Amino acid sequence: MDFAFGPEDERFRTRARDWLDGHVADALAQLAGQSQSQSQPGAGHDGPPAPAPAPAPAHAYRAWERELGADGWIGLGWDRTHGTYGNRPATLTQQVVWAEEYARAGAPARLGHIGENLLAPTLLAYGDDTQRARFLPPIARGEELWCQGYSEPEAGSDLAGVRTRAVRDPGDGTYRVTGQKIWTSLAQEADWCFVLARTEDGSQRHHGLSFLLVPMDQPGRVEVRPIRQLTGDAEFNEVFFDGAVARAEHLVGGAGQGWRVAMGLLAVERGVSTLVQQIGFAQELDRIVRLALRTGAAADPVLRDRLVEQWAELKTMRWNALRTLGEASGPGAPSVAKLLWGGWHQRLGELAVRIRGAAAALGPERWTAERPYELDDAQRLFLFSRADTIYGGSDEIQRNIIAERVLNLPKESRG
Description:
- It is a single chain.
- This protein is globular.
- It has helices spanning about 5-35, 60-70, 90-105, 115-125, 130-140, 260-270, 275-295, 300-325, 335-355, 375-385, 395-405; strands spanning about 145-150, 165-170, 175-180, 190-200, 210-215, 220-225, 235-245, 250.
- A four-stranded mixed β-sheet has the order 1-4-5-8. The chain has a four-stranded antiparallel β-sheet with strand order 2-3-7-6, with no helix packed on it.
- The relative contact order is 0.10.
- By secondary structure, it is an alpha+beta fold.
- Helix 1 packs parallel to helix 3, helix 7 (about 275-295) runs antiparallel to helix 8 (about 300-325) and helix 8 packs antiparallel against helix 9 (about 335-355).
- The chain contains eleven helices and eight strands.
């Protein structure tokens, strides 16, 4: 099987590389200056699976989003059936090319990926013309950021158990949203949140849910509380809705159709995007290999075998993703992909600290009252990747999906 990109893909690669070479250096220099001027870490990066050092303030990353949007690099390949929104046309393989070149250039972490890669395809598939015209252009311009309101304290991987309610106001027709969401990436910076909420009294499980677009700037009605993680960072958040207002025209897919819309979005989240994740994984693996060579750990035959295994497994995941690119995947394909990369990345974190040896127990800097929790890259990767088999749907849930929807085994009792 030929995994090579075609001539048009390579011409697209040249255009992408030229643009990045002309813009990334200045953007990184500005971000570095902003970061150095801060005495405390800024906002979290764009979320899993790539742990990163504390970045510059969010306004500096917003400027980079607007720069990308101004030249049409946000929303590559969006379905153009309903029109264009300021983005470039691109095939699936060209989207992969852009991601590869973006990683190669060491370009800044993205704040807009949730709106661009999750909400936008969902609106294109399930939204109406008015919703697409209102929300897609600001996403494509890099002007509005989004977060995802799915998981709750009692409904994480079991998403059908959500309890957040949205009650229709008989007067003005708006929805009043009340409840709690958790593990919400980017909530502290987001302008909007797409929320899965229960809109039918007495409904249970996946029935009676609706998909609502909720503005975050509602003092007293929307509260965001950062969650401090093992790494010391706080890119995840709790979000509390206390009668937050969502307009009736911002209900996507129809009342009571939220489960269908939410599942369509998750297919995007766990599908093609895994190929982009693997580019970051490859860079992390490369750094760990260089660390093993520099410290002499590569001379240990056990560690050397582990490094080779990680490399071979990553290559296999990439080839499988390329093979299925553009094909209609079955119901279990996203779950298989999540199981593969979640375990792989977690093992990579374990390998990183094993290569460091006893030195992995020590911080890279002397801790102070102002900065009490300094970690090096290997420590950060190890601690962050403990969550890889939990967020985005735990391994147990993914195995249930494969068993029930692919192998047609008896359903697990959920009484």
